[in-house]
Amino acid sequence: MIPKIFGLILAAGYSSRMDDFKPLVHYDQKPFIEHIINKLIAVCDEILIVTGFNGYMLEDSVKVIYNGKQILKKIDFIHNENFARGMFSSVQCGLKALINEMKESDYVMLHLVDQPHISEMVYEKLAKEARSSARKVILPSYEKKAGHPIMLSKSVVEKIIDAPVSDNLRDILRKFHDEISYIEISDESIIQDVNTQKERERYLK
């Protein structure tokens, strides 16, 4: 059975280090969120965006961007009321909304909103591995350093949902170290987070 891939974009934070609302910051004439959606939709069956700070603004903006386009039917939103508790709360919020739709062979492709510059090749390689691998976690790697986006199987999703909100994703994934597939990628952007204006100038040339 071909696994279904759900795209999950984390876009709930305050963007305080950017001094601007990160999902709608422009790169190459498009907002970050649009770059990410356009690349995810090529390999994902559905996309869920976790909102928090400025949630209504983001949702309205995405609907305007894709107004009248079929892609909008594959995009949904969930608001994390506890987004101030940190990124892990948004991870859990999004995964809880997806878990009942997932079959055992399905994956979630978890994506940070501050990486709009990852190449299409990365998504294609991760999706290909998901279709041929039984590994519980699939991680892209640049020079032996793991990056994003990451692929999570249903069993891992369940562990994340059951964890206390004080936990973090990295520690949970360590428990699956024998069941992780690392995909070597030549694209350094998988380990580059654009959180500040300086990083924007450095990485988004």
Provide structural commentary.
With 205 residues, this protein is an alpha/beta fold. The chain has a single domain, classed as Alpha-Beta Complex (Spore Coat Polysaccharide Biosynthesis Protein SpsA, Chain A), CATH 3.90.550.10. 33% of the residues lie in helices and 22% in strands. Helix 3 crosses helix 5. It is globular, with a radius of gyration of 16 Å. The N and C termini lie far apart (41 Å). 40% of the residues are buried.
List the helices and strands and how they pair.
Blueprint: E1 5-11, E2 26-27, E3 30-31, H1 32-40, E4 46-51, H2 55-65, E5 75-79, H3 87-98, E6 107-112, H4 120-132, E7 137-142, E8 145-146, E9 150-153, H5 154-162, H6 169-174, E10 180-184, H7 197-203
Parallel strand pairs: 1-4, 1-6, 4-5, 7-10
Antiparallel strand pairs: 2-3, 6-9, 7-8, 7-9
Number of domains: 1
User: What top-tier CATH class fits best?
Assistant: Alpha Beta
**Which fold name is given in CATH as the topology?**
Spore Coat Polysaccharide Biosynthesis Protein SpsA, Chain A
Structural class: alpha/beta
- Poorly predicted runs: none
Helix coverage percent: 25-40%
Number of strands: 10
CATH superfamily placement: Spore Coat Polysaccharide Biosynthesis Protein SpsA, Chain A
CA(first)-CA(last) distance: 41 Å
What's the shape?
globular
**Mind telling me which CATH architecture this is?**
Alpha-Beta Complex
- What is Rg? 16 Å
Q: Write down the overall mean pLDDT.
A: 95
